[in-house]
Specification:
heterodimer, A: alpha+beta, 6-stranded mixed β-barrel, 13 helices, 20% strand, elongated, B: 2 domains
C-alpha cells in the first residue's frame, strides 16, 4: 500500500523555510556544478570540433602547433594537385594559411590586447565549411578583415566596436572590417580573418603557417596522409585536422579533471544539506512512522515515501538551477587560445537534473537506513 | 565564551546534524580556498617573477612571447642609452604558446649576468659548473619533479627540435614562473635552434627606478624605425599582459568561490533553524531558569560559529594540503601559474567560515531569543 504523494507535500509545507532553504542550497550547488561542467565541455568541444573529418593539416616538419610552423609557399603548388584533394568549381580545395597572435591596438592610450589572426584566401571557406559569412563580405581586398563573433570577447571590447565599417590596428597598419562570420562551436569564432598576401606582407613573413587540404573522401584522406608522409620532394608534417585539434584539446585534460572534482564536491555539499534536512524530518516524525507501521504500512512504503520527500526539494532546486544556468547559455569567456561560449544544452541540463536526483537519493540513504531499523514498538513509544 | 562548553555539548547531542553541517562547511571552504589559490598563485607569480627595476624590451606586435624575434644588435644600442645599468638577452624556447597545462619552457640566458637579474636558490658551486660547461642546464624544482629529472642526467627534448642538455643543478625560486623552466646558455640555445643572432626579449636593468617610464620611451623611440620595432614595459606589466588570456577563467572561478560561500550560509542557517525548532522547549526552560535573551542569542550563535569554524578549519587545511602538494599548474604564453595556498589564506578562509556561520545564525537566534516562555513550554512537536 503506497502512501499518497499529498502526504509528502503536506509534510514539506509544514516547514516552509526549511524546505525552501534545502531546495535553495541544493539548487546553488547544482547550479555551480552545471556551470563548471559547461565550462569544461565548452572549452574542449570548441577546440575539438574545429577540425573537419575530411581535412588534412600540413605543417612544417617537427612543428607541434601551427604557430611554430613555417612552410615554403612552393609546397602548396606541389600538394594542391594531389589526386586525393577534392575540388570545387575545378579548383582544388587547398587552403594556404598564416596564423599568428598579435597585439591589436584598440584605442590610443589603451594597452594593446592579444588577438588571433588568420590570413586566408577565399578557398578557406570551402575547406572550413563550418565557417559561414553572416554579414558583409569576404575580405579579398588589401587592408580588409572579417571578424568572428567571439573576437569582441577576446579583445575585451563591446560588440559595436567591431561592427562592419569600423577599423582595427594590427601590426602597425589599420584594417577595415568588411564582414562578420560565424562558425558555431569552433575555435575560429575568436579569430580575425584577412587576405593571406596582405597579412604576410604586414608581418614580414615569407612562409605559410599551414596548408589545409580537403580530401575527396575518408579513404582518400588516409591515402593522402600516407603519400605526403612518405614523399621525398617535400618534407612536411601531415595529420588529420581532427587529430591536431583533439591533441590540442587533450592539453586541457587536467583542467577538466579539476572541474570534475569540483563538481563532485559540490554535489557532495548538496548531499550534506539534503541529508541534514531529511534526518531532521525523520527524527521529528519517529512516532508518526510508528503509527504508520501500526496502521499497516510496510517499511518499504514508508522508506519510499521519505525518499520522495527527499527528492522533491532536490528536484525543485535542481530545476531552478537549470533555468538559471540556461540564462548563462551563450555567455562568452576569454581563454588563452581565444574565447569560448558556455554551451548549456539539453545534455548538460539532463546532467544537472541527474545530479539533483543523485543528491536526493544519497541524501535520503542514511536517514532511511536509520528509520528502517526502528522497531515499531520503540517508534510509537518515542518521545 | 562561557557558553563554549555548553555549545560543545549541544553539538554533541545531535552528532549527526553537527557532523553534516560541519562537513558541508568543510566542502564549501575547500572549494573556496582552492579557487582563490589560483588567483593567489597568479599574484604571487607576478611579484616573484619580476624585478621592480627591470624593463622588458619586446617585439612590438607579437602576441605570443616565444615567437618574438629581436636582433641581438638591439642589445648594444640599448646598453649605450643613459639610464640603463645593464642588459641581458634572453631567448625562449617553448613547446607551445597557448596550451594551458603541458608547457616545457627553455630559457637561454647569459650565465654571467643572470644572477643580477633573477634570484634563484642554488649553491654557487653548481651554478659555476653550469656557467662553464657547454650544453649544461639548471632546471626549476617543479619541472624536475614533473619529469623526474636528477642532477647529472642528460635530457633531449624531442618535441623542441631535439635540444639536449645535461642537468647540472636543480634550483628553487618559490612562486616564480622560473620554477617550471629550464635554463641554458644563450649562445648554446641560439646555436642548437639555428637562431644565431636573435633573442626573444631583452631584460634591461635601469639605474634609477623613478626614471623607468622615460627610459622605456627612449628605447622604443630609438628602435621604432629599426627592422624590429619594440615595446618596452616594466617586467610585471609585461607578464600581466602576457597572461591576460586566463584572467577570464580566473575571474569566473573567483565567482564560483563566492557561490560556495553562499552555500555555507544556506547550509548552516538551515541546520540551525532545525536545531532551534527541535529545542524550543529547551530554550524555554533556560529562560525559565533566568537566562536572558542575550544569553540564548549568544548560545545559538556560539554553536553556529563553533560548527562553522571547525568545518572551515577542516576544509581549509585539506585545501592547503591538496593544493600545495599537487603539481597542477596553469601555463600561459610561457609563464606558469602555480596555485598557492598561503598561511594567510588558510586563516582567512577559516575566519570567513566563522563569520558566515555567525551571520547565518543571527536570524534563527533572534527567533529563539524572542520565544514566549509559556507558549514554548506548551508546544509539542
Amino acid at each position: 500500500m503506497k502512501l499518497p504523494l499529498r502526504y509528502n507535500f503536506r509534510s514539506l509545507l509544514r516547514r516552509k523555510t526549511r524546505a525552501a532553504m534545502t531546495a535553495g542550497g541544493i539548487g546553488l550547488a547544482v547550479l555551480v556544478a552545471v556551470l563548471m561542467l559547461a565550462l569544461a565541455t565548452g572549452l574542449t568541444n570548441s577546440i575539438r570540433d574545429t577540425g573537419h573529418p575530411l581535412n588534412a593539416l600540413v605543417t612544417s616538419k617537427g612543428a607541434e602547433t601551427i604557430e611554430f610552423s613555417a612552410i615554403d609557399p612552393a609546397v602548396l603548388e606541389v600538394l594542391r594537385f594531389s589526386p586525393y584533394v577534392a575540388a570545387a568549381e575545378d579548383r582544388p580545395l587547398a587552403s594556404p594559411e598564416v596564423f599568428f597572435t598579435t597585439q591589436a591596438e584598440i584605442a590610443p592610450g589603451r594597452e594593446p590586447t592579444q588577438a588571433l589572426v588568420r590570413g586566408v584566401l577565399p578557398v578557406a571557406l570551402g575547406v572550413h565549411d563550418q565557417v559561414r559569412l553572416s554579414a558583409g563580405r569576404f575580405p579579398d581586398q588589401p587592408g580588409e578583415i572579417m571578424v568572428g563573433p567571439l573576437v569582441a570577447t577576446k579583445l575585451d571590447v563591446p560588440g559595436e566596436r567591431l561592427a562592419i565599417g569600423q577599423s582595427l590596428d594590427l601590426e602597425g597598419t589599420s584594417w577595415k572590417i568588411v564582414g562578420e562570420f560565424a562558425a558555431p562551436g569552433t575555435a575560429f569564432e575568436s579569430e580575425i580573418w584577412g587576405p593571406l598576401d596582405d597579412l604576410m606582407v604586414a608581418t614580414r613573413r615569407s612562409e605559410l603557417s599551414s596548408i589545409v587540404l580537403r580530401a575527396t573522401n575518408a579513404a582518400a584522406l588516409d591515402e593522402m596522409l600516407f603519400d605526403f608522409a612518405t614523399r621525398t620532394d617535400v618534407l612536411v608534417e601531415v595529420r588529420p585536422e581532427t587529430a591536431y585539434y583533439a591533441a590540442y584539446a587533450e592539453a586541457f585534460r587536467p583542467v577538466q579533471i579539476m572541474v570534475y572534482v569540483m563538481a563532485g564536491m559540490l554535489t557532495l555539499g548538496g548531499v550534506f544539506i539534503g541529508m541534514n534536512t531529511l534526518f531532521a524530518a525523520v527524527m521529528s516524525r519517529i512516532r508518526e512512522i510508528g503509527v504508520l507501521r501500526t496502521v499497516g504500512y510496510h517499511r518499504r512504503d514508508i522508506a519510499l515515501s521519505f525518499l520522495i520527500e527527499s527528492l522533491i526539494p532536490a528536484l525543485v532546486g535542481g530545476a531552478l538551477a537549470c533555468v538559471i544556468a540556461l540564462g548563462a547559455n551563450g555567455f562568452a569567456l576569454r581563454i588563452p587560445m581565444g574565447a569560448f561560449r558556455f554551451d548549456v544544452g539539453p545534455q548538460l541540463l539532463a546532467i544537472g537534473m541527474g545530479l539533483s536526483v543523485l543528491i536526493g537519493i544519497l541524501g535520503a540513504a542514511w536517514p532511511l537506513w536509520r528509520s528502517a531499523r526502528l522497531k515499531t514498538v520503540d517508534a510509537i513509544r518515542h518521545l | 565564551m562561557k557558553f563554549l562548553p555548553f555549545a560543545f555539548k549541544s553539538l554533541a547531542r545531535n552528532p549527526v546534524r553537527a557532523l553534516l553541517t560541519l562537513l558541508g562547511v568543510a566542502v564549501a571552504i575547500f572549494l573556496f580556498t582552492g579557487v582563490v589559490s589560483l588567483d593567489q598563485g597568479m599574484q604571487r607569480m607576478l611579484t616573484n617573477s619580476s624585478g621592480d627595476d627591470i624593463l622588458v624590451v619586446f617585439d612590438k606586435y607579437q602576441g605570443c612571447p616565444p615567437l618574438s624575434k629581436l636582433p641581438i644588435s638591439h642589445q648594444g644600442q640599448v646598453a649605450d642609452l643613459p639610464g640603463v645599468a645593464d642588459t641581458m638577452a634572453t631567448l625562449f624556447l617553448l613547446s607551445s604558446c597557448s596550451r594551458a597545462t603541458d608547457l616545457v619552457a627553455v630559457h637561454g640566458i647569459e650565465p654571467g649576468k643572470f644572477r643580477d637579474f633573477r634570484k634563484i636558490d642554488l649553491p654557487d658551486e653548481q651554478y659555476r659548473t653550469f656557467a662553464q660547461e657547454r650544453g649544461a642546464a639548471i632546471v626549476g624544482e617543479q619541472i624536475a619533479r614533473t619529469y623526474g629529472w636528477e642532477v647529472g642526467q642528460g635530457v633531449t627534448l624531442e618535441k623542441l627540435g631535439g635540444v639536449s642538455f645535461t642537468i647540472r643543478g636543480i634550483f628553487r625560486a618559490p612562486g616564480s614562473s622560473l620554477e617550471n623552466a629550464i635554463l641554458v646558455d644563450l649562445d648554446y640555445l641560439q646555436f642548437a635552434t639555428q637562431q644565431v643572432g636573435t633573442m626573444t626579449l631583452l631584460m634591461t636593468k635601469i639605474s634609477d627606478q623613478a626614471g623607468s617610464g622615460a627610459v622605456a620611451e627612449r628605447i622604443d623611440t630609438m628602435l621604432a624605425s629599426s627592422s624590429s620595432p619594440t615595446k618596452t614595459s616594466p617586467e610585471q606589466s609585461f607578464i600581466a599582459t602576457a597572461i591576460s588570456g586566463v584572467t577570464g577563467i580566473i575571474g569566473f572561478s573567483r565567482w564560483l568561490g563566492y557561490v560556495a560561500l553562499g552555500i555555507i550560509l544556506i547550509g548552516v542557517g538551515n541546520s540551525l533553524a532545525m536545531t532551534i525548532r527541535d529545542r524550543t522547549r529547551e530554550f524555554a526552560i533556560l529562560k525559565t531558569l533566568g537566562f536572558q535573551r542575550g544569553h540564548v542569542l549568544g548560545l545559538v550563535i556560539t554553536e553556529a560559529a563553533l560548527a562553522s569554524l571547525l568545518g572551515g578549519t577542516l576544509g581549509a587545511s585539506l585545501a592547503w594540503l591538496a593544493v600545495n602538494r599537487s603539481s597542477l599548474t596553469l601555463s600561459v604564453e610561457g609563464f606558469t601559474i602555480t596555485p598557492y595556498v598561503s598561511p594567510e589564506l588558510v586563516l582567512w578562509a577559516i575566519a570567513l567560515a566563522g563569520i558566515l556561520g555567525t551571520l547565518a545564525a543571527v536570524f534563527p537566534a533572534i527567533r529563539a531569543s524572542r520565544l514566549r516562555i509559556v507558549q514554548a513550554l506548551r508546544e509539542v512537536d
